[in-house]
Design goal:
By secondary structure, the chain is an alpha+beta fold. 46% of the residues lie in helices and 14% in strands.
Amino acid sequence: MKIYLAGYNTDVQFSGNTPETLSAAYARISRDPRPVHLLREEACGEVERARESNRRIVFGYGHGSVAEHAVFNFDILDVSRLAAEELQNFRLASFTEKSQRYVRLKEDFVIPEELKAENVERFRESMHDLHARYDALYHGLREKGFPMERAREDARYVLPMATSCQMGMTVNARELEHMVRRLSCHPFREVRAIAVELLRLASRAAPSLFIFLEPTAMDGFAHSLQPAGKYQGDEVLLVESDDDSMVGKLLVQWKTGAIPEESSEAWNSMSQEERLELFMEALEGLGIHDHVPRQWEFFRAIFRLVVSSGAYAQLKRHRMCTRLASVYDPSLGVTIPPGITRAGLEELFMNGIRKAEELSGRLGVVYPYALTNAHRRVVTLSMNGRELYHFSRLREDEHAQWDIRTTAHRMMELLRERAPLTFMLAGGKSAMT
């Protein structure tokens, strides 16, 4: 694992050398009558006083929002894809990860420190085997005429979650403190080590902004993933959803100024043609990069999904939704890329899967390190209508990764049946041009 502090924001006008001066100056805006640029100049000239002000305001007064004005950039390298998943669960940060879809990987993986001595060599052999199968699948797909990108995309489903990755991360100090506190009580040593290093680097630059670092009971609860259970049924299930009336009544209010009781009555009395006209008026001019109006945020849908690790990697990027994920569970089966089946490579693929599962059964708490991108988990997902449009634009697009595209298409099919007017202009960007 390697983590570098790539940068942080400073006051360029007054030659500040720490983001703490910006936090301290902005914290004073609400109580000090002077112009803000003078507050910044004073903070840059008296850094220790600015730090003391931060400690008093954040810790003493509980105004943690001032720490949001300090922003950090990190390079994070040589962490497992499993650990990267834990980092990327945090909403209020930005991540860009090296993609296994576009980069052909070399053999590089993380060996969890928790492994018992008798399992280390067995683990190493399994990692070598899965990476060798990745190469064999890639070459086999290429020989069958698959394009390079698709061959990489399908072959990667046999890669273990222990495979190393790298990313860039941008995060403000308040969220970083939350991240460090929560990750510091994670069951995996690798994840806890990431928390230690992030804090070490950030606190050098801004020591006054990291105060609440002791994990709470709720931080521990966050790591208690639900069991997958004996899941049966569709891989995409619409558990609960509003219908067109939710957005429709709000559009009536927008158009007429009616109070909620009147808008409900008006909506119920409208013909289907009038309802269609109301929605079309609100959505007129909607482009492929536009967000639908905020009325759509009141629409709510809850899904239960069974997704592969590969698809979950795409799903977790939609951080404004609410997700509850189960453990990865071999009893849920695996997702076999259709290309691998068409190329006659399924036996090569499944032999690797079975060996990975055999090893995972020996590893205790760190068993997911031995599982692959093809293994699955159950996800309960809640999204509002506005986020669902964004999700549809990206994940139903013809350029989207095929696994998440299949899931997204089925989700939107179910929603179009439930709320056809609300989602009448949903769809991938490629379908809108």
